[in-house]
Write a structure and sequence with these properties.
Elements: H1 3-9, H2 37-48, H3 56-70, H4 97-110, E1 122-124, E2 128-129, H5 134-146, E3 151-156, E4 159-165, E5 173-177, H6 187-195, H7 215-231, E6 240-244, H8 253-260, E7 263-268, H9 271-280, E8 285-287, H10 290-302, E9 307-312, H11 315-324, E10 331-332, H12 353-362, H13 364-386, E11 391-392, H14 399-405, H15 423-431, E12 438-444, H16 449-468, H17 475-487, E13 499-504, H18 506-521, E14 528-532, E15 540-541, H19 559-571, E16 575-580, E17 590-598, H20 602-625, H21 629-641, H22 655-658
Parallel strand pairs: 3-5, 5-16, 6-7, 6-10, 7-9, 8-9, 10-11
Antiparallel strand pairs: 1-2, 3-4, 12-13, 12-14, 14-17, 15-17, 16-17
Helix pairs in contact: 2-3, 7-8, 7-15, 11-13, 12-13, 13-14, 16-17, 16-18, 18-20, 19-20, 20-21
């Protein structure tokens, strides 16, 4: 069968041959056994309902074996035979160009070069799923191929509920992931209900079909590292950034360190992913011996090198060894997947990677105990370095949160706050989000690198024009992003789709998008898909990350994220998503995203102006109401530009009066 024929058949009527387990692929760890015998039967009933009754007798023992072996039913047999990658949009069987664009983005999320665990349909973060099983993928792609521009596909946590009548201006797809009743949003609830096949953890851009490989986090990390060094008034050159994690998101850290110009040491326990990052060029060197690491870092410092070094081993060993060897760490952080601490997101020190994976599945309570012991030891080592001048920040991966739950010494004197800031509190919040700057991204649907080069040039020209009249308060942000886009081609950041990201405010996003749409209308480039990371000004309510610099008590509310997705829906987004659990853990965050197809039409021009303005200024208004000075400045400026915008501003209270 051709690629198009396979898409159009959906779930095959005749069973494909069973597929052997491929050990060469990076697979998800076994999930812990959490279902009772009756719940196991329920999980099997739930899985079998995708298939004609005539296949149940064959599939039942197979699905039971998957559940026993992996802790989930992935339906490996139904994994397609064709290569998984983002094809040019014209190659998809579709009645709607918007639907074809979504098919392209789904396949990009599952591209072997992009996805962390492609056979388990997990894009990044250890558990960030596009779907829970391959039947969902097959059925979703079939629906997208069949749908027209007066239908909307409804996605319930990976499950395609179906096509419903709507209208041309409605989103083509509406996605929810993990939207649990609040009392059922603990980590074990995710394990249970995911195993039952009734919900999934969509992370952020995994379950919203908007992941563009590590480029997105490379850019965000580059901005963070540059501003981190500015904060401590040091140049990156010859100075040291120490962190950990080389997985789907964290693997971008050493590349970002190179772009920023510092020395980066990044520890990783997984040999396979470490080698992948070395082969991809995301790290310069791999070292497995601590004494050799010390010697190499001293040499890099002496010669003021720009270099990224992976240490294959546990990060705790690095912090402790550098303390013993008196190596000064300038910036320190961590980007292990501590939103998922008990299922492969963080590994105990003193145990091999393989031993830990066995313990994780077979002795989960002991594994948890070992992880918490390691977190306490990790925090103690960091404390020794910060006492000597290291600037440590939580990189939004729930490190401080989980360390506090483990009883680590990371609490401030008041017993309420952490002694170390989130990078959003200190860097990204006041310097970017409050001004409306966040991760705007686009994908050239033609798959043509020439289109990407043209869009880079268009975006750079737009930003340079805007910068000429920008207020002093945002000149640094403008300069950083112009420098970024000028070096984007040289940095070889494309993995998977022909995509790009930069940080822009509402003005920048709208003007860049309008310039793209006009270039499409003129025949200079083909279709462009707009999107953003959920980690943005408005899309995410996350009290320990995106909204950690909200100090009016509302950081534990999720009104902003919910309003964001509702507002994007009726202002012209092609698809929208709202998730529980992205980035910092199940039950810890509500986050949403969008996708928008530009086709050169007048209608697309109207939609982009309406939606992008709201998508940013919703968040600025909330941040200004929280009394953030930078956001008050930004929303006043937005009201001056747009007469139809009228936002409630806070009246500031004199501290002396309160005291």
């Amino acid at each position: 069968m051709t690629f198009k024929e396979q898409i159009l058949q959906g779930i095959p009527d005749n069973l494909p041959k069973a597929k052997p387990f491929d050990p060469s692929i990076n697979h998800a760890p076994k999930r812990k056994a959490i279902l009772s015998s009756e719940e196991t039967k329920l999980a099997l009933r739930n899985a079998l309902r995708y298939f004609d009754k005539k296949h149940h007798e064959t599939l039942l023992p197979e699905f039971k074996a998957e559940l026993d072996t992996y802790g989930r039913i992935y339906m490996y047999r139904f994994r397609p035979d064709y290569k998984m990658y983002a094809r040019p949009i014209s190659e998809y069987p579709a009645q709607s160009k918007q639907a074809a664009a979504i098919m392209l983005m789904i396949q990009n999320n599952l591209d072997y070069a992009v996805a962390q665990h492609p056979h388990e349909l997990i894009t990044y973060g250890g558990n960030g799923g596009v779907f829970s099983n391959w039947a969902q993928y097959c059925l979703t792609m079939k629906y997208l191929a069949e749908m027209n521009d007066e239908q909307t596909l409804v996605m319930y946590s990976g499950h395609p509920m179906g096509l419903f009548p709507s209208h041309k201006e409605a989103p083509r797809v509406v996605v929810t992931n993990g939207m649990m009743i609040p009392n059922y949003s603990k980590p074990d609830d995710w394990e249970k209900f995911n195993a039952l096949g009734v919900t999934q953890y969509g992370q952020m851009t995994a379950g919203s079909y908007m992941y563009i490989g590590p480029q997105g986090i490379v850019h965000g990390t580059t901005i963070t590292v540059l501003n981190g060094f500015r904060k401590i008034k040091k140049e990156p050159k010859g100075n040291l950034f120490v962190t950990s994690g080389l997985g789907g998101m964290s693997g971008a850290q050493p590349k970002a360190g190179n772009i920023a110009g510092c020395i980066t040491v990044c520890a990783e326990v997984n040999p396979k992913i470490t080698q992948v990052r070395l082969d991809q060029g995301w790290i310069d060197e791999k070292i497995t011996d601590l004494d050799q690491l010390v010697s190499r870092v001293n040499k890099a410092k002496a010669e003021k090198e720009t270099i990224s070094i992976a240490y294959l081993g546990n990060i705790v060993e690095v912090w402790e060894k550098f303390d013993e060897a008196n190596i000064n760490i300038d910036l320190g952080s961590d980007q292990t997947s501590l939103h998922n601490p008990w299922a492969g997101g963080y590994y105990p020190v003193g145990i091999t990677f393989d031993e830990a994976n066995i313990m994780m599945a077979n002795q989960p309570e002991l594994f948890k105990e070992k992880v918490q012991e390691t977190l306490r030891r990790h925090a103690d080592a960091i404390n020794k370095h910060t006492a000597k001048g290291t600037y440590f920040f939580d990189y939004g991966n729930a490190f401080l949160l989980e360390a506090s739950r483990a009883g680590a010494d990371i609490m401030a004197k008041n017993g309420i706050d952490f002694k170390y800031p989130s990078y959003v509190q200190d860097i990204m919040g006041p310097m970017c989000f409050d001004y409306g700057f966040g991760p705007f991204r686009w994908v050239c649907a033609s798959g043509n690198p020439e289109d990407l080069a043209k869009t880079d040039a268009i975006a750079c020209q737009v930003l340079e024009e805007i910068k000429q009249n920008s207020p002093e308060e945002i000149q640094q942000q403008m300069s950083d992003n112009i420098q970024w886009i000028k070096g984007a081609q040289d940095n070889q950041l494309v993995v998977g789709s022909q995509a790009r990201i930069l940080y822009a405010d509402a003005e920048g996003r709208m003007k860049i998008a309008e310039a793209f749409n006009q270039a499409i209308a003129n025949g200079e480039i083909d279709t462009v898909i707009l999107g953003r990371d959920h980690h943005d000004v408005s899309g995410t309510d996350s009290p320990y990350r995106e909204t950690s610099n909200i100090y009016d008590g509302s950081r534990f509310t999720a009104d902003m994220a919910i309003h964001n997705v509702i507002g994007d829906s009726f202002r012209g987004a092609t698809w929208v998503s709202i998730h529980n659990g992205g980035g910092v853990g199940w039950g810890e965050v509500i986050n949403g995203g969008f996708g928008m197809v530009l086709d050169g039409s007048i209608e697309a021009s109207k939609r982009l102006k309406q939606m992008l303005f709201w998508d940013v200024n919703n968040g600025i208004s909330r941040r200004s109401w929280a009394r953030n000075d930078e956001a008050i400045f930004a929303i006043k400026r937005a009201m001056d530009i747009e007469p139809n915008l009228k936002v409630t501003l806070p009246n500031l209270v004199d501290d002396a009066l309160l005291n």
